[in-house]
Design brief:
The complex is a heterodimer of chains A (about 90) and B (about 900). Chain A is an alpha+beta fold and about 90 residues long. Chain A is built from four helices and four strands. In chain A, strands 1-2-4-3 form a four-stranded mixed beta sheet. The radius of gyration of chain A is 12 Å and the shape is globular. Chain B is α+β, with helices and mostly antiparallel strands. Chain B is built from 34 helices and 32 strands. In chain B, the strands form six sheets. Chain B has an eight-stranded mixed beta barrel. In chain B, strands 2-1-5-4-3 form a five-stranded antiparallel beta sheet, with helices on both faces. In chain B, strands 7-6-10-9-8 form a five-stranded antiparallel beta sheet. In chain B, helix 25 packs parallel to helix 27. The longest helix of chain B has about 35 residues. The relative contact order of chain B is 0.03. Classes of the chains: A alpha+beta (about 90), B alpha+beta (about 900). At the A-B interface, helix 2 and helix 4 of A face helix 4 of B.
């Protein structure tokens, strides 16, 4: 039910490598902090940088967000949402 | 900030040289560039530092030129991110604090004791329950070893939960950890750190002591119940109420049913109990809560056992059950049947007995004193004895039914009721002129039963027996026994008073012919008539007795002389000679009469009888009507002629026999011994007393074999009585003078004692004073010999001879027998009383026992008792008895210590 109202904002940062991937992701999280915490927004970060699948989830987890990493055809999709439990 | 600095710079520039200004500007530009580069370097370094904290790579310059760097503002991004990290961290800490409080609360509210220890067993946390249980008084337990604090003893590694966890990992359990008498179930759960190493172990102690105790007491209760079930003397079935199936049975129940457990369990209860009322179970169908009744138990072999069944309902496992117990009643039933039979028997006896029985109850007055009694029941014999129908007496008071004196027996009955001791007595019941032997006993509290035996006839018979013993049944005259007694009395009396006595023997002439020709009835008639006539012809103080078929004797006391006696004789003969009408026929009777006078013709009864008899024969022979005894007659030795030859053969013909007369202790009334007395049953002359043949036996020397026979017989008989179990009694035997004179008495006695086995101390030899004095020295030697053998020695007929008491002390004498002549008038003549008293006193002073002979009355007994006489002998107690009668008397207990002859 909640999913129905959750908007997913996608950031395609393929081609970037760490740490810019991380900074890009963090900037997005910072910018949308309120909506993410409120649960109405989900960020989906597409990356092909393998290191990013470690740095981004660890950083946003420490910030209290829920993170999941899944593979996509050409790289990875890192999903970030407001609740750790997600 | 940059703009501001530039403005300040431009103000400075306006007032200076341009070249120098240019140089200065160039220099300034170069300086600015350097500072910009330094600033960018600084920013990048800080960014890298922050990125490192974030765990990522440093920012390469080629990735981002300085302009973009500032525009992108990574520090801002990272600061924002850090701000969020901090914020999250704070929230997390707050949540953790709440969680910790929650966990504490949960731990503290748990019933189990919970400890958290590290891998070394050091306590890191504990809940309140563990504090209560393990260290109630210790505060600082964190960090201390749980092994010290809780186990407090070395524990083997296989048992220690921590050791087990460190070896095998995973959870470990100890199902029964015992501490301070408590039982715990312990579960140890390891907690691992990120590296998977055990960092903590949670120990949960669940106290199940109570449960263990309950289990234990449950087991004990069950064992107890089982013991009760198996040991109780009742069969027990447990039945499931709905199905009526037996679910449990005890051993006795199985034995009573007679089937193995498996055959009983699961079976319907109706198969064994309540068979008849199947479908009408008192509990489940008839709605009773308890059933207790006599029933039959059906046994496996088809038998029926009487039982007392008790059923109660009990709930077991939530289901209704019936607990049925059975007590085997077969023994009780048998006992009841036996009791019933016994009761029936006694009831029959009660109804059929000839003694009347009444059951009575004491009646009390207001003060509680018994004043009367009420009749509760009587038997048929009672009805007929008292001629009172049962309905007329039941419930009525004795005072309404019985006149005195029955009611006067109330005191006796009260005593019976109070003491419980039975009492019996004789009672005359005037209204019916009956005599009862009444036994009263107390069968129940406050009650007594009286048994009435009608002894009226027996009493009458006893009087009759008494009469027959001393009186002739045909004529009513005194018989031979009483005559002898009276004669002795008369002689004794006359001897002391100096009077004379006449003894007359009268024989009817031709009486045999009367009997033979006219029959016995006529003869008897005649005898009665003669008796009447004789009786009417003498004074009241004289005695007429019939001592044989047609032989009468008359004792005339206090006679003057032969003239008077002769006149009396004539009068008697005339009286009988008066013609008489007997059965329509006139008869004329004559008689021959012989007279002997005391003291001229004899001083003893024996002599006088013998002489009067001789005189009578003379009269008959000479046809005289009466004849006085003369000494010439003695010469004729009539008896010798008659008896001499017979006496010789009497021993061989077994004509002698002994009679025994009891000797009685005067104080206790108990029999101490008896005197053996010789009798001769002559084939023609009948029973003869010793006086009629002993003098002859003495004279002819036959006294020696006869005396020996007497001694042997008496000793053998006394021994036989003892062997028959009667109490030891002393037998006294008379020795004659000739036995002493001829010598050898001691040897003879010794032989007899040896032959018969009679103990010497139970034999007493009696000798007369005359014998004692005859040849004093020889006699004394003989007596000493006898005494040395252990015999008792007595002086017979003491007081009639010449011996002085003081002389007696030279002889080993034990007893003196006071002659009957003194005893006879002891209560009537002061002289006799004085003599007897003197003999007793002096005899006692010589330590001799005194025996009184011829005691006949209670007055005499009381006189002698008062004077301290030791023993007595005489008709008052018993006449001499034949062997059979004496034995019978012993058997009936008269010789027994329990029986007092005084009562007889």
């Amino acid at each position: 039910m909640a999913d129905a109202t959750v908007e997913t904002m996608e950031f395609d940062i393929r081609g970037q490598i760490c740490p810019s991937t991380l900074l890009t992701a963090l900037r997005a999280v910072n910018q949308h902090r309120e909506r993410l915490r409120g649960g109405s927004l989900r960020l989906s970060i597409l990356t092909d940088n393998r290191a990013a699948t470690n740095t981004i989830p660890e950083a946003v987890r420490n910030m209290g967000y829920g993170v999941s990493v899944s593979r996509t055809g050409t790289g990875y999709c890192i999903a970030i949402e407001g609740d750790m439990g997600g | 900030m940059k703009g501001l600095k530039a403005t300040e710079h431009w103000a400075d520039v306006a007032g200076s040289d341009p070249a120098a200004e240019l140089v200065r500007l160039r220099e300034e530009n170069a300086s600015l560039r350097e500072r910009e580069a330094a600033a960018a370097g600084y920013v990048r370094a800080k960014i890298d530092q922050l990125l490192q904290v974030m765990g990522t790579l440093p920012l390469h310059p080629e990735e981002l030129d300085d302009a973009t760097l500032f525009a992108l503002d990574p520090i801002g991004i990272l600061s924002d991110a850090f701000a969020q990290v901090l914020e999250h961290s704070q929230k997390t800490n707050e949540a953790l604090a709440v969680a910790r409080d929650e966990i504490s609360a949960i731990l503290d509210s748990a019933g189990a004791a919970i400890l958290v220890v590290d891998s070394e067993g050091r306590i890191q946390n504990r809940n309140s329950r563990s504090r209560e249980l393990f260290f109630p008084s210790q505060e600082a337990v964190i960090g201390r070893s749980c092994r010290e604090m809780i186990c407090r003893r070395p524990v083997a590694p296989v048992t220690c939960l921590l050791d087990r966890i460190s070896r095998h990992g995973g959870r470990a359990e100890d199902e029964d950890f015992t501490l301070d008498g408590k039982h715990f179930h312990v579960v140890a759960t390891p907690l691992h750190d990120r590296q998977g190493v055990v960092s903590r172990v949670v120990l949960v102690y669940t106290d199940f002591t109570q449960r263990r105790r309950m289990e234990q007491s449950l087991l004990e209760a069950e064992a107890r119940l089982r013991t009760i079930l198996t040991s109780v003397q009742a069969g027990i079935l447990l039945i499931e109420a709905e199905s009526h199936r037996i679910v449990d049975v005890n051993d006795l129940g199985l034995r009573m049913i007679g089937a193995p457990r498996e055959a009983v369990l699961g079976a319907e209860c109706h198969r064994f109990v309540c068979a008849v009322t199947c479908g009408e179970c008192p509990i489940t169908e008839l709605g009773q809560t308890v059933d207790s009744a006599d029933r039959w138990l059906l046994t496996a072999n088809g038998g029926r056992l009487p039982v007392l069944k008790t059923v109660t309902k009990i709930m077991l496992d939530g289901r209704m059950h019936l607990l049925e117990s059975f007590v085997d009643l077969s023994e009780r039933k048998q006992a009841e049947a036996a009791l019933q039979a016994s009761e029936q028997k006694y009831r029959t006896l009660y109804a059929a007995m000839k003694e009347g029985v009444s059951l009575n109850e004491l009646v009390h007055d207001a003060a509680g004193c018994p004043v009367d009694f009420r009749i509760i029941d009587v038997n048929p014999a009672y009805e007929s004895i008292f001629n009172l129908p049962r309905q007329a007496v039941l419930g009525r008071l004795a005072s309404e039914i019985y006149p005195e004196p029955v009611s006067s027996h109330l005191d006796i009955y009260i005593r019976v009721v109070e003491s419980g001791q039975p009492v019996s007595f004789e009672s005359s019941y005037e209204p019916l002129q009956k005599t009862f032997h009444v036994s009263a006993f107390a069968p129940a509290e406050g009650r007594f039963a009286t048994v009435f035996e009608d002894i009226t006839e027996r009493k009458r018979a006893e009087v009759e027996v008494q009469r027959l013993a001393y009186f002739d049944s045909l004529t009513g005259l005194p018989n031979r026994s009483l005559f002898r007694d009276r004669l002795e009395q008369a002689l004794a009396h006359a001897g002391r008073a100096g009077h004379r006595v006449a003894l007359m023997f009268l024989d009817l002439d031709q009486f045999k012919e009367v009997n033979d020709t006219l029959g016995h009835a006529t003869g008897d008639h005649l005898l009665k008539m003669v008796a009447d006539r004789l009786g009417n012809s003498v004074r009241k103080s004289d005695t007429v007795a019939r001592i044989g078929g047609d032989e009468f004797v008359v004792i005339l006391t206090d006679v003057e002389g032969e003239v008077d006696v002769s006149a009396a004789a004539s009068k008697l003969l005339s009286a009988i000679a008066v013609p008489a009408q007997v059965e329509g026929r006139e008869m004329f009777i004559t008689g021959s009469l012989g007279i002997a006078l005391f003291p001229e013709d004899g001083e003893t009864a024996e002599t006088l009888i013998k002489n009067a008899d001789a005189a009578m024969y003379q009269a008959k022979e000479h046809g005289d009507t009466h004849q006085f005894y003369t000494t010439a007659m003695n010469a004729l030795a009539l008896e010798r002629l008659l008896l001499g030859n017979d006496l010789r053969r009497a021993l061989e013909r077994n004509e002698f026999f002994l009679v025994y007369q009891p000797q009685v202790n005067i104080d206790s009334g108990r029999m101490t011994g008896m005197e053996a007395l010789l009798r001769w049953r002559h084939p023609d002359l009948g029973l003869l007393p010793p006086s009629q043949f002993i003098p002859l036996a003495e004279e002819t020397g036959l006294i020696l074999p006869i005396g020996r026979w007497v001694l042997e017989t008496a000793c053998a008989q006394n021994r036989a009585w003892q062997q028959a179990g009667f109490p030891p009694l002393m037998v006294a035997v008379n020795l004659s003078g000739r036995q002493f004179r001829e010598g050898g008495v001691a040897e003879m006695v010794a032989e007899v004692l040896a032959a018969t086995g009679m103990p010497a101390h139970l034999l007493e030899l009696e000798i007369t004073e005359t014998v004692l004095m005859d040849n004093a020295e020889t006699t004394r030697r003989t007596l000493n010999e006898l005494k040395a053998m252990g015999l008792q020695l007595a002086i017979d007929d003491f007081g009639t001879g010449y011996s002085s008491l003081s002389y007696l002390k030279h002889f080993p004498i034990d007893r003196l027998k006071i002659d009957r002549s003194f005893v006879h008038d002891i209560t009537r003549h002061d002289d006799d009383a004085a003599i007897a008293e003197a003999i007793i006193a002096m005899g006692h002073s010589l330590r001799l026992k005194i025996v009184a002979e011829g005691v006949e009355t209670l007055e005499q007994v009381e006189f002698l008792r008062a004077r301290g006489c030791d023993e007595m002998q005489g008709f008052f107690f018993r006449r001499p008895e034949t062997l059979e009668d004496f034995t019978g008397m012993l058997q009936h207990g008269l010789g027994n210590d329990q029986i007092c002859l005084f009562s007889g």
